[in-house]
Amino acid sequence: MSLMLVVTVLGWVGAIAGLVAYAMVSRGRWSADSLAFQGTNMLAAMTLLSVAAANGIWPSAASNMAALLIGVNAVFTVVRGKKRAAKEAAALRVVEDTVTDVVPDHVPDHLVDDAPAPRPAVSYRAYAEAA
What we know:
The chain is α+β, with helices and mostly antiparallel strands. The chain has helices at about 5-25, 35-55, 60-90; strands at about 90-100, 120-130.
């Protein structure tokens, strides 16, 4: 397998990856700040940069280098934003999986849906805000 064949295959992979990323964002399947979109764009930029450099097409190589750097910056921004949002979000956690209370005896039977004795238990989940 010749080097030029490898370069040509890389060029096609990069072109297809770039088109897939563009199509996924255009159709609303991915958002522009998703890691899938940014990763696919960076893959496309890396492969097209390699092809352009191997063929001595320096304007294309430079634009793909810029696209790659923009993608790297976007990934760091997305990851930093997700970490910050996770840290700042008020997290709820389950304190007790299920809390069961028995209806007290002093509650009249007609308020307990005519249930026979023993009185029914009321279950609910208890949550607490993480500090």
